[in-house]
Design a protein that fits this description.
Elements lengths: L2 H10 L9 E5 L7 E9 L4 E6 L1 E5 L5 E5 L1 H14 L2
Antiparallel strand pairs: 1-2, 2-3, 4-5
Length: 85
């Protein structure tokens, strides 16, 4: 398997994701909602996540920047630490 195929397979199988990573989901145009989630654990065939809220920062007219809520992230990470054997 060449490196391009290996990289594509890794990306397809989501093996590059690890516990604690933040992922973002958007759709549509312009004023689309932005959603964030924290990867809580992975298996060979699954990725589990917990959604977290977002914070917004002012941008240009009718525009804003969304960032993950850091307090929510800390809570999820603490839950992961205390529930991991």
């Amino acid at each position: 398997m060449n490196t391009t195929t290996a990289a594509a397979t890794e990306h397809k199988n989501l093996t590059h994701l690890k516990t604690g990573d933040i992922v973002c989901s958007t759709y549509g145009y312009g004023l689309s909602p932005v959603q964030f989630a924290v990867i809580t654990h992975t298996t060979d065939k699954s990725v589990y996540y917990q959604e977290i809220s977002r914070e917004t920062a002012e941008g240009e007219w009718m525009d804003y920047y969304a960032v993950p809520n850091q307090e929510d992230y800390k809570k999820v990470m603490e839950t992961i630490k205390t529930s991991t054997p």
